[in-house]
Write a structure and sequence with these properties.
The chain has 154 residues and is mostly helical. The chain contains six helices and no strands. The protein is globular.
């Protein structure tokens, strides 16, 4: 139960921070991304602060085996930048640049009654479903493929 309460509090603090910083406002985000027009640099400070806090938190967590609440520590182990990561990052960036939302701020905006956030969330869920379907299909094909014959020396 303490983990659920801590998760709720963390989510509320995160959502409040997104509202306070303007990250849940797609016009502000698009203004930040508009480098050739009327660029709004204010979100750069928000991002720098988030990266700083996140870096400190990961450095602290890397030295622990369990969380402060006693749950096992589950930090990402992948360190390699591969094609799938790069393509996913590009897709994320394009979506963010087109509509001014990413998942966290979209949830906050949806809770605030922003109709555009609903369209974004539906498109995001559809994209996640498509990815899951493609992954299952890819894994099924990989496991269904006949084994490659091995030549013998005899």
């Amino acid at each position: 139960m303490p983990i659920l309460i801590a998760s709720l509090v963390a989510g509320l603090v995160f959502g409040f921070g997104l509202l306070l910083s303007g990250m849940a406002n797609p016009a502000r985000v698009l203004g930040f991304l508009d480098l050739a027009g009327r660029w709004d640099p204010s979100l750069a400070l928000v991002m720098a602060g988030a990266v700083g806090v996140g870096s400190l938190a990961f450095a602290f967590a890397a030295r622990r085996r369990v969380s402060l609440l006693g749950a096992p520590m589950q930090l990402p182990s992948a360190r390699r930048i591969d094609r799938r990561l790069a393509l996913g990052s590009v897709a994320f960036g394009i979506g963010w640049g087109l509509v001014g939302f990413c998942p966290g701020p979209a949830l906050v905006a949806l809770g605030a009654g922003e109709h555009k956030a609903l369209v974004f969330m539906l498109a995001m869920v559809a994209g996640m479903g498509l990815f899951e379907w493609l992954e299952r299909r890819r894994n099924t094909v990989a496991f269904a493929a006949p084994p490659t014959p091995v030549e013998s020396d005899a």
